[in-house]
Design a protein that fits this description.
With 74 residues, this protein is an alpha/beta fold. The protein is built from 3 helices and 3 strands; from the N terminus they run H-E-H-E-H-E. The mean pLDDT is 94.
Length: 74
């Protein structure tokens, strides 16, 4: 999924903790990826998630998230 999101030029939003592990491995090995926005329903409401995702997409550039993991809430 990370490779596909990179080819599409999009951040990947997920609640899957396995992607956190994958991001850490890629960062350690220097394997590029577009970026992951992680939010788990136990930690953030759907409404907050939507507001934070909108903020990310309207107030920043995609390149700012390259090879990084952003945890919600902001």
């Amino acid at each position: 999924m990370l490779d596909r999101s990179g080819k599409l030029g999009r951040l990947l939003y997920s609640e899957d903790t396995d992607l956190i592990v994958e991001a850490a491995q890629r960062q350690e090995l220097g394997v590029p990826f577009m970026g992951i926005v992680y939010g788990h329903s136990a930690n953030v409401s759907i409404g907050t998630c939507v507001k934070d995702l909108e903020l990310i997409m309207t107030c920043s550039e995609l390149e700012e998230y390259a090879n990084s993991l952003v945890r919600l809430p902001l």
